[in-house]
Amino acid sequence: MRDLSNDRSLLAVNSATVKPWNLEQLIDGCVRAGIPAIAPWRDIVQAVGAGKAGNMIRAAGLTVTSYCRGGLFPAADEAGRRLALDDNRRAVDEAAAIGARNIILIAGGLPKGSKDLAGAHAQVRDGIAALLPHARAAGVPLAIEPLHPMYAADRACVNTLAHANDLCDQLGEGVGVAVDVYHVWWDPDLAAQIKRASSRILTYHVCDWLVPTRDMLLDRGMPGDGVIDLRSIRAMVEATGYSGHIDIEIFSAENWWKREPAEVLRICLERHRTVV
Amino acid sequence: MRDLSNDRSLLAVNSATVKPWNLEQLIDGCVRAGIPAIAPWRDIVQAVGAGKAGNMIRAAGLTVTSYCRGGLFPAADEAGRRLALDDNRRAVDEAAAIGARNIILIAGGLPKGSKDLAGAHAQVRDGIAALLPHARAAGVPLAIEPLHPMYAADRACVNTLAHANDLCDQLGEGVGVAVDVYHVWWDPDLAAQIKRASSRILTYHVCDWLVPTRDMLLDRGMPGDGVIDLRSIRAMVEATGYSGHIDIEIFSAENWWKREPAEVLRICLERHRTVV
């Protein structure tokens, strides 16, 4: 395990953390702060176009840890599943254009009106399998991110690292996992599943679980403000040989999204150094 | 599996579902509606005293499926853990006094200021072990109820049926599990863990997962109003040989708790017959 007195060389900032900023502002802000890597969401990349976005990012010398995000495979009918697959292929192309090291996939939830969880699981597996040839050809690994079980119905029905690992076993080369502490910290099987994931860990995300949590989606905490034992989970991840960036991703409508983004970056840097 | 065109003989109503009612009203309401069983929370039992409560329930001829609830074992220091254990022993005595078939235990979350999840898990195991001799002597089985992972920090750090089954393996006779669909429906390992639990299933709770869910604690749905495949999960439970009651437990501050409780019971009866 590497020295935990972090310098900023491993810090990546997810664009969701500084949501008020567009891509240009994100790039400028990170360069000014000496932050070497970003993980942009599609909205800010599409706003300028993926080709131009890639040029801007390369010109600034920033690493793109992940592109956020594809997935959302289950749909009520074949036409819906085809639309999702087409959109995922475009997302992979965008990821390639900006030089992202991988693309994050979240599963998607139950199709509208459905209670068939096992069926949704199968649609996710089949959707990733269908996307995989395109992703392999583009050289963009697919990072399956299990989301917290509270999102199973409407956002993602892959909710444990065990399930994501099972999908990797089934799908083979070109598929890995994204470990986000917010989604997996509670899991009593976490240490074993991180060990099992091992070299499949494509990216590592941090934020914190606040007590109380006031909103199921938009009340994530800055690292250090909640109850997650960040150093322990990081040690598990790095014990597998993971030496990539650590991506701070915070959805926080009522707190961090209302602050001045440059100040948010300053606090990310400080927390990266002291508690991540 | 038994015929699913339910008559009311298997329905139990949890007192949380008709929260405005006291024990006398709950008993009267269930007798009027022809509902044969109840699962009272401690507040309404303690309000009259457990001895008198038992007399009232027996006089009405009602079954007590479970007493809700004990647990909450982790604490920041030994004195706190001893207080919790003492309170649990009193809860077991109350359960015995009202003739409850078991007492529900929820684990409790992280002690204030702690990020040590593994330590909290150990405190839960040790707390149940310490309570067990008293519970065995009182003839009250302990039903460990895994709660949804969104409660891991502040309410219960046992969040999967696998974890509850592990605790049963470690603790032996006198300990079982409570399966509540709200907490476990999302789990890809559910079928296997229900099968593993088998005769350890002491009680079965239903409500529904609403989309959207507007509050993490108090926005549970009436069976049939959400996305949980109730009939499938019930079939898994009954395939183990479980033939006990089905307890409708709904926390719903903004909807069901605001309605006339007798009307809520009428709808519980209807949903029990049609969708549970």
Order of helices and strands of chain A: EHEHHEEHEHEHEHHEHEH
Interface with most residues: A-B, 31 and 31 residues
Our estimate of the beta-strand percent of chain A is 5-15%
Question: What are the low-pLDDT stretches of chain A, counting only 5+ consecutive residues below 50?
Answer: none
The CATH superfamily of chain A bears the name Divalent-metal-dependent TIM barrel enzymes
Mass-distribution shape of chain A = globular
What is the top-level CATH class of chain A?
A: Alpha Beta
What is the share of helical residues of chain A?
40-55%
Strand order of the largest sheet of chain A: 3-2-1-9-8-7-6-5-4
Give the N-to-C terminal Cα separation of chain A: 14 Å
Number of domains of chain A: 1
Counting copies of identical and different chains, the oligomeric state is homodimer
Kindly state the mean pLDDT of chain A as a whole number?
97
Radius of gyration of chain A from CA coordinates: 18 Å
Number of helices of chain A: 10
Polypeptide structure, described:
Chain A is of the alpha/beta class. Helices cover 42% and strands 13% of the residues of chain A. Chain A has one domain (8-274): Alpha-Beta Barrel (TIM Barrel). Chain A has 10 helices and 9 strands. The first copy, chain A, has a 9-stranded parallel β-sheet. In chain A, β5 (103-106), α5 (117-138) and β6 form a beta-alpha-beta unit. The model of chain A has no long low-confidence stretch (mean pLDDT 97). The interface between A and B is medium-sized, with 31 and 31 residues.
